Amino acid sequence: MLRILFAVLLAASACTAQEIPAGPIHPDRQARTMAGAPPQSPIAVPAGTTIQLGVTQAVWAKTAKIGDRIYAETVFPVAVNNQMAIPAGTYVQGQIDSLTRPRLFSPHAQFQIHFTQLVFANGYVAPFGNAAGSQAATSSAQQNDVLPAISEPYVDVSSSSDILLDNGTQMEMVLQLPLVLDGTQVENAVSTSKPFQPTSFKSATLCRPMAGTPGTAGTPDTVIPGSQGTPDTVIPGAPGQPDIVIPGIPATPDTVIPGTPGTPGTPGTSCPGPPVVASNPKAQNYKEPFQLTAATNVAETPLSAGTHQADWAGSGLTVQVVIRQNGKVVATVPARFVILEGKASANLASTTVNSDGSLSLQSLRFAGENFALYFDGSLGN
Question: Any idea what the Cα angle at residue 279 is, between residues 278 and 281, rounded to 5°?
Answer without folding.
Answer: 120
